Amino acid sequence: MARELAPDPDDPWARDLLVALEERVRRSPLERFLSSWDLSAAAAARIFGVSRQAVAKWRGSGVPEERLVALADLAAATEVLERYVRRDRIPAVVRRPADLLGGRSLLDLAESGDHVAVRRAVTEMVDLRRVQP
């Protein structure tokens, strides 16, 4: 007899888990970035070099083509952070000055417009080969 793998929809914890998983899967890269880094529309506007109103519009209609490469780099950095850092600690990690970044934070680097450097820095920060003998 095959065991049913789907959770019972009458179990509140199972329903909450399914809702949380569906939200995570369906979130856009922009929403995931903003949420994980705990960014306001104003902070996102500084990162992308646009107005708060533009960011609000993107949330509804999507990121314009000319900003997709920057978002892809930031989304890739976010994915790495989510894999290696507890989710509730990501906002502090991105705001903490790092020796690797010359005393700047990942947020400082993002706000300077160097989104490729953010992706590279995050990848390097979690590279365990650096700490192995």
Nutshell version of this structure?
The protein has 133 residues and is mainly α. The chain is 62% helix and 0% strand.
How would you describe this structure to a colleague?
- The chain is mainly alpha-helical.
- The chain has one domain (12-130).
- The chain is built from eight helices and no strands.
- The protein has helices spanning 12-26, 29-37, 41-48, 52-61, 68-84, 90-95, 106-111, 115-125.
- The longest helix is centred in the middle third of the chain and has 17 residues, at 68-84.
- The radius of gyration is 18 Å and the shape is globular.
- The relative contact order is 0.11.
Task: Please describe the topology of this protein.
Layout: H1 12-26, H2 29-37, H3 41-48, H4 52-61, H5 68-84, H6 90-95, H7 106-111, H8 115-125
Helix pairs in contact: 2-5, 3-4, 5-8
How much helix is in the residues? 55-70%
Look at the helices and sheets and give the structural class. Answer: mainly alpha
Could you tell me the radius of gyration in angstroms? Answer: 18 Å
Enumerate how many helices there are, as a single number.
Answer: 8
Q: What is the 3D form?
A: globular
**Integer average pLDDT:** 87
Main pleated sheet: none
Give the N-terminus to C-terminus distance in angstroms: 51 Å
SSE arrangement, N to C: HHHHHHHH
Beta-strand percentage range = under 5%
- Tell me the count of domains: 1
The poorly predicted ranges are none
Counting DSSP E segments of at least 2 residues, the number of strands comes to 0
Oligomer: single chain
